Amino acid sequence: MNPVSSPLLTDLYQLTMLQAYVQHGMEEPATFEFFVRKLPPTRNFLLAAGLEQVLSFLEDLRFTAEELAWLSGCGMFRPGLVDYLEKLRFTGDVHAMLEGTIFFRDEPIVRVTAPLPQAQLIETRLINLLHFQTLIASKAARSVLVAPNKLLVDFGLRRTHGAEAGLLAARASYLAGFTGTSTVQAAPAFGIPIHGTMAHSFIQAHEDETAAFERFACASPDNVVLLIDTYDTEAGAEKVVSLAPRLRQKGIPIKGVRLDSGDLGEHARKVRRILDEGGLTDAEIFASGNLDESVVRQLVAEQAPIDGFGIGTRMNTSADAPYLDCAYKLQEYDGKPRRKRSEGKATWPGRKQVYRRYDAEGRMCSDVLTLEDDPQEGEPLILPVMRGGRRLQASIPLAAVRERARNQLARLPPALRGLEKGPDYPVEVSAALRDLAKAVDEHQL
């Protein structure tokens, strides 16, 4: 049993609800939508991510003999449910905003229409996949915006909340515009470029810092980026300059140095001067160490001579906004619109579409949230991606998703590109949707 891909990786209430649905024959088509109720205080937009993993999950959805045996023996479920689950496959339709699309509050990024038990069962894993990657992609995009044309590397695997999170964070940050990741498995899994240098332990394991630099360079001659702040940053840079001629005789160029502590801007200026005076004008300076988009913005603003940044913990945990207020809610069942009216959590009923409008300069200026069958001016963002449990097209290459995200970020209004909270982006709720909500409320009273 693979715990990550197992359909048992769900909340208990999904299975207890299924038991009741199956027992009472409630298998008519149901439509659920995934959306974010409100943006975190520090976010002006969100970047959709995770659809690829959702579609793979749906295509592969099935219970193994081992899982069915556990369900039969745990004492909580009736034989009828186990028999139903043995044959269960996802046969529904999925409409979605494509990955790399910018979206805002109340806008569905995934819509699922399937027999009620199927649409209900997938809720937990669908939220799990969409929430995390969207959270990280949206965080990573902020660094991309403040440090254009800089090398940006995901450095956060060791402090993400679990192995799958670390791997998916590499994907989400690359989707958002990062250059690459230090997570090796992301290369064979997703084709993401991998970057890395050395740890302080490598330096400490040697009696002499220069000897450590030389051994590392000879072991990895095509990627000589030396960590120079284990003891004294500027002294480390001087040792790199002294070592360079000997390495050059061996045909080994020094690609760069890495700074990981202290006042990164001040150290970078001093190190740049030492490298340049020593003839290493092509050697790059790479910085890491508790970075986030705010620190990167400050270093860029003060024109610190830093060519790239390794950003880890604060991005991979989205430290300033570690969760999204998101939901996957029933909007239609058996051909009838449904609406939740809980205080502070009311939903808009029916199958919805989002239309985006652009200004004369091609920047997004407003969205309209409306019903699927209520055409509006603008670009429809929710598209069919799966029918009858099968994708409508092959998996979209991650490079293409990354390009879409780049284009979307370029079309953001200037007021939403900063790190501070800007004006709320206009999301208009159409008259047709408001009328439907009123009609549903009157019927449910």
Question: How would you characterize this protein structure?
Answer:
With 445 residues, the protein is an alpha/beta fold. The chain has two domains: 12-136 and 321-444, nicotinate phosphoribosyltransferase, CATH 3.20.140.10; 144-316, Aldolase class I (TIM Barrel), CATH 3.20.20. The chain has 16 helices and 19 strands. It has helices at residues 12-23, 51-60, 65-73, 79-87, 116-121, 123-146, 163-176, 186-190, 200-204, 209-219, 233-249, 264-277, 293-301, 313-316, 398-410, 431-444; strands spanning 29-38, 46-47, 93-96, 102-103, 110-115, 151-154, 180-181, 225-227, 256-259, 284-287, 308-311, 325-333, 336-337, 352-358, 364-371, 379-380, 383-387, 390-391, 427-429. The protein has a seven-stranded antiparallel beta sheet with strand order 13-12-1-5-3-17-18. Helix 6 crosses helix 7 and helix 6 packs parallel to helix 13 (293-301). The longest helix has 24 residues, at 123-146. The protein is globular. The two termini are 47 Å apart.
Question: Key terms for this structure?
Answer:
alpha/beta, 19% strand, 2 domains, globular, TIM Barrel, 7-stranded antiparallel β-sheet, nicotinate phosphoribosyltransferase, 6-stranded parallel β-sheet, 445 residues
Write the layout of secondary structure elements.
Blueprint: H1 12-23, E1 29-38, E2 46-47, H2 51-60, H3 65-73, H4 79-87, E3 93-96, E4 102-103, E5 110-115, H5 116-121, H6 123-146, E6 151-154, H7 163-176, E7 180-181, H8 186-190, H9 200-204, H10 209-219, E8 225-227, H11 233-249, E9 256-259, H12 264-277, E10 284-287, H13 293-301, E11 308-311, H14 313-316, E12 325-333, E13 336-337, E14 352-358, E15 364-371, E16 379-380, E17 383-387, E18 390-391, H15 398-410, E19 427-429, H16 431-444
Parallel strand pairs: 6-7, 6-11, 8-9, 9-10, 10-11, 15-19
Antiparallel strand pairs: 1-5, 1-12, 2-4, 3-5, 3-17, 12-13, 14-15, 14-16, 17-18
